[in-house]
């Protein structure tokens, strides 16, 4: 299996542009998957430079209803005319973030894309096939990102705290190994891994995703002591972690200190080869 980072907050090469967002291209034995589309059409621009044909994607997944993960949806629909797009049924709700001065900025998806017969709206659990499944029914029991307090859903004229029911996570099974992919882990990466264990009965071999330990709206990092505790718990799972996007570089560096070679950061242009006899990162 190959996982290529099409867009992320940082870049591994001056050949590729970066943005606040996330998009991954995943090639398995059975599928070509697009996981999130970043904030704009940049993911497609970078894919072209990498020689990746997005028209060949047969499954697309949007992790949750924020623009930095689904902002490139229109671009993808224009490029690809066949892939079903799996998205939570609440993802198109009006999502907002607090900005400087207390104003609320719209950070949701483009509702003009509705209706579209290619969208498959998912609930708490959705099995795509024997290799792919989605889950979103995660209980936010511990170490929930403090940055969530600045994120809202508009209900009529009122802004209410987002409970992130619209956030879904992807499980990929291949050759007896399992990969868990989270977009932003708003429910808390530990809680997501715990839910995975409830579903599967074991911990994943690999985990990829943003951990939301940095808030772009406020510019604040998660408390360092909390990050250390998260790192210790993740280390106990014995999974291999690749993080990016909303984790934040400062928080990543603390996780790296705690977790050592069990975690790495992946930037735009990075390619991971996993589930093989030898693991390779270019």
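^ structure tokens above, recovered residues below v
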């Amino acid at each position: 299996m190959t996982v290529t980072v099409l867009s992320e907050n940082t870049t591994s090469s001056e050949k590729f542009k970066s943005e606040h967002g996330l998009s991954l291209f995943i090639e398995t034995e059975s599928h070509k998957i697009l996981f999130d589309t970043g904030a704009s059409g940049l993911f497609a621009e970078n894919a072209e430079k990498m020689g990746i044909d997005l028209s060949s994607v047969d499954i697309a997944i949007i992790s949750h209803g924020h623009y930095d993960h689904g902002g490139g949806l229109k671009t993808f629909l224009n490029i690809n005319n066949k892939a079903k797009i799996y998205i939570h049924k609440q993802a198109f709700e009006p999502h907002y973030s607090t900005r400087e001065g207390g104003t609320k900025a719209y950070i949701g998806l483009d509702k003009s894309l509705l209706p579209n017969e290619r969208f498959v709206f998912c609930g708490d659990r959705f099995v795509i096939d024997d290799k792919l499944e989605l889950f979103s029914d995660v209980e936010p029991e511990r170490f929930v990102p403090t940055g969530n307090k600045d994120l809202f859903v508009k209900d009529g004229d009122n802004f209410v705290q987002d409970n992130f029911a619209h956030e879904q996570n992807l499980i990929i099974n291949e050759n007896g190994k399992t990969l868990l992919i989270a977009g932003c882990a708003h429910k808390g990466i530990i809680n997501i891994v715990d839910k995975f264990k409830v579903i599967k009965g074991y911990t994943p071999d690999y985990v990829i995703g943003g951990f939301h330990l940095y808030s772009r709206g406020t510019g604040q990092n998660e408390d360092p002591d909390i990050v250390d505790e998260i790192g210790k718990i993740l280390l106990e799972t014995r999974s291999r972690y690749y993080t990016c996007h909303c984790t934040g570089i400062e928080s990543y560096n603390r996780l790296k200190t705690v977790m050592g070679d069990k975690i790495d950061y992946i930037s735009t242009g990075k390619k991971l080869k996993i589930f093989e006899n030898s693991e390779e990162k270019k």
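Residues 278-282 have pLDDT under 50 and may be disordered.
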